[in-house]
Fold this protein.
Amino acid sequence: MRVDVHTHLWSERTLPGFLRDYSAGRPDSSLKSGCDALLESMDDCGIDAAIAVALVHSADPTDQEVTEINQFVRDEVAKCPARLIGFCAVNPRSADAVAMLRDELAAGAKGLKFHGAMQQIDVDDRLMYPLYEVLAEQRRPVLFHSGDIGVLPIKDRHTRATLFDTVACDFPELPMILGHAGRIDWPTVAGLLRKHRNVYAEISSVIGRDPGFEYEPVRALLETVKSWAGSVAHILFGSDAPLYSQQATQSNLDRLLTRLPTLDTILTANDVLAVRNTNSSEFIKQHQLLHR
């Protein structure tokens, strides 16, 4: 089974201008969302299942705004629960954040998406700890934005890869996925994967801009992780669809596979194929995220 661990479901009318501008500037990007659009892309790419996340994209939304964002994801996932796995979002600044997280998990959310850069909270801020405690208690994963974001005017400082060590140390039973693999701090990510059994990284948006060599960043990531952690078993396939297309992410790995025999590298074809085809499915099986 092939799984994408990072896709989005959103109502376009709730999206901020900066995401619209970012998508408009990328040829492989779209804002088209919803169950039908996601399943069509998955079918085109041979992807069997996907984690579909809610996105809180501002610092202090109202509880009603967050509820509306989560409700959209819940409704769309309910149309195809055999293939879609919903993750909720919360506003950690809300007095009701913990209660809202518990309610979302009870209503069917399988994990939490937290975007520290857009929500303007450091991932190791103590404000986050009550939420992490709930997730760790229930062994539910959190998918973080990690590393740089490359979207103006959002600042990177809240999601630097170095911040995740504290969270992983304090919550060793919390399954953590570093979205975008801490882009572009591969050595720090490799150290995290070597040190913490509960930390994973996914490859969405790890695509270079040099024509013909777009695969070089993901190659550098995989080589660095394999060198220090000993394997790429904790590197997962994620696309960030629809902002980055599933096809673009998949094609980038295929280009690396094609070039692999000509490269001086410790990577094998099996390493790349595991990232493309099997690591993510092992993750969702281990954490019992999809019941078919």
